[in-house]
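Hi all, long-time lurker, first post. I run a small reading group and we've been trying to get comfortable going from sequence to structure in the token notation. Rather than ask abstract questions, I figured I'd post a concrete chain and ask someone more experienced to write out its structure so we can walk through it together at our next meeting. Sequence below, copied exactly:
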Amino acid sequence: MAVLISPGQEEGNVPYVEESGFGTFSSDPNVIAAKVSGWLASPPALESLQCSAKEASRPSATLDIAKDLASMVFAAKQKQL
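-- Answer (accepted) --
Happy to help. Here is the structure in token form:
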């Protein structure tokens, strides 16, 4: 459950989370309470969220990004030589 979106940070993540089926966004406390309560009261709903999150996960994403950045820096340095 996303309850706050930092501009330039999470705003792109909310559609991904919602479209992937493992969460949603609201800043309304009543909506948040109802949604989370519904999830907690329903083991099948929690299992569905968990399965969707696992399917959408990219455990190596941070390492992949770091490798890409390192490659770009290395290529730029090579051009300077």
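A couple of things your group might point at:
The chain has a mean pLDDT of 93.
Helices lie at 13-20, 29-40, 43-56, 61-80.
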